[in-house]
Structure to design on (435 residues):
């Protein structure tokens, strides 16, 4: 490094140890130079050589790159003298003399000379008043500055509190969103795991069921065929009950054969006696059947007559209404078609005709049965003619929505108006005849 003087070579002298008192060497005792320990030399760098300091730069370059003191002083803001801060709002700076100074006095007032107190005290009073005013202005300025600082600090604290509250709200919202996201992710993973477990369980059950379905049947069938599984009731029935049952059936069959031969003999005799009784009973039954047939025919005729009267009454009631509705809202072909369908349905609902008397019954009845058959009508009466009233037809058209309800309402209003007019005319004629 620059400024270090070169060190002498590492040499030393070997001498005997000295005592505390100084001893002079004798002429024959010369100091022998010896190499000193290099580890104690200050020029040797100790420690790791990797951490050795780099060589120093050139002093000429350092001096050329070093800035001048004037420029450095001009650029250094610490060396610039501080200025007076600007005045607060509503104030201004005033130049005052605050340093103490000595004035050169040319006159000396000796003790005993004349002294005008009012004239001499005026400068002192001016200084005192100026100092008091300056101190007052300074204190007022400080108070206003402190109040301004306090207001600014309070405003800063308010803004900072509002910002902290907003930051806390944002942090809370972000924390809630994060927790909700984690919860949703956890829920989705749990649901996926449950679905995967359920799918594996279903697949395992289906595989086990398919695998064991045929295996169990075949194994149990082989074991049952080999005789390892058997029904004790079935074996007892086969070994004990069936032989006993066969013997009992054979014995009962022999008894039944003897009884059957006896019963056949008795039956022949009873049949011979019962033929006469059956002929009389058959004749009586035939007469009862004919009487019941006549009564049912008369009841049906009365019912059909009542029905025909009702049909005539319905037809008389609904014909004007159907005639009023038919030309405007219903086609005549549709009316004929619906009437024909209703006639077919009514014809199919009629009771079937009475069957003829069986020939076997006539043979059993004998001559009396022939006479009764001759008196009976040769065939069943013809069914009555089916007539569909306009009221039934109108009801069927309404159920099938073939007639608009608006048209039906208009026809009803027209008929009611006509009947009301006819009733009013009849009342008027009756009153006129009465008067």
């Amino acid at each position: 490094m620059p400024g270090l003087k070169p060190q002498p070579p590492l040499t030393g002298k070997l001498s005997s140890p000295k005592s505390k008192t100084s001893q002079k060497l004798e002429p024959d005792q010369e100091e022998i130079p010896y190499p000193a320990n290099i580890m104690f030399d200050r020029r040797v760098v100790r420690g790791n050589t990797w951490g050795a300091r780099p060589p120093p730069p050139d002093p000429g370059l350092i001096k050329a790159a070093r800035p001048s003191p004037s420029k450095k002083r001009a650029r250094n803001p610490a060396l610039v003298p501080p200025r007076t801060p600007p005045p607060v709002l509503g104030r201004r700076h005033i130049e005052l003399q605050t340093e103490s100074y000595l004035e050169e006095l040319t006159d000396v007032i000796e003790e005993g000379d004349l002294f005008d107190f009012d004239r001499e005290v005026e400068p002192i009073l001016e200084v005192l008043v100026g100092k008091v005013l300056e101190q007052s202005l300074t204190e007022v300025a400080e108070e206003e500055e402190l109040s301004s600082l306090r207001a600014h600090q309070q405003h800063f604290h308010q803004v900072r509190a509002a910002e902290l509250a907003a930051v806390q709200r944002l942090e809370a919202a972000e924390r809630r969103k994060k927790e909700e996201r984690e919860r949703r992710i956890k829920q989705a993973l749990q649901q996926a795991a449950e679905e995967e477990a359920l799918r594996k369980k279903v697949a395992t059950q289906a595989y086990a069921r398919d695998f064991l379905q045929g295996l169990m049947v075949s194994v149990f069938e082989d074991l049952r065929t080999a005789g390892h599984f058997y029904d004790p009731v079935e074996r007892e029935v086969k070994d004990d009950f069936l032989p006993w049952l066969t013997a009992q059936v054979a014995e009962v069959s022999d008894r039944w054969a003897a009884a059957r031969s006896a019963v056949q003999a008795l039956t022949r005799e009873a049949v011979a006696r019962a033929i006469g009784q059956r002929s009389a009973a058959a004749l009586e039954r035939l007469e009862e059947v004919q009487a019941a047939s006549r009564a049912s025919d008369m009841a049906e005729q009365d019912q059909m007559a009542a029905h025909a009267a009702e049909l005539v009454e319905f037809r008389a009631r609904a014909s004007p209404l159907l005639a009023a509705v038919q030309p405007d809202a219903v086609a005549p072909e549709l009316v004929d078609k619906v009437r024909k369908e209703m006639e077919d349905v009514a014809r199919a609902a009629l009771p079937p005709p009475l069957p003829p008397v069986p020939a076997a019954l006539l043979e059993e009845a004998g001559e009396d049965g022939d006479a009764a058959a001759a008196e009976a009508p040769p065939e069943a009466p013809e069914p009555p003619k089916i007539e569909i009233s306009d009221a039934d037809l109108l009801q069927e058209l309404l159920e099938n929505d073939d007639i608009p309800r608006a048209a039906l309402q208009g026809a009803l209003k027209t008929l009611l108006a006509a009947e009301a007019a006819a009733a009013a005319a009849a009342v008027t004629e009756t009153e006129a005849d009465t008067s």
In short: The mean pLDDT is 72. The first strand starts at residue 12 and ends at 14. The chain has nine helices and two strands.
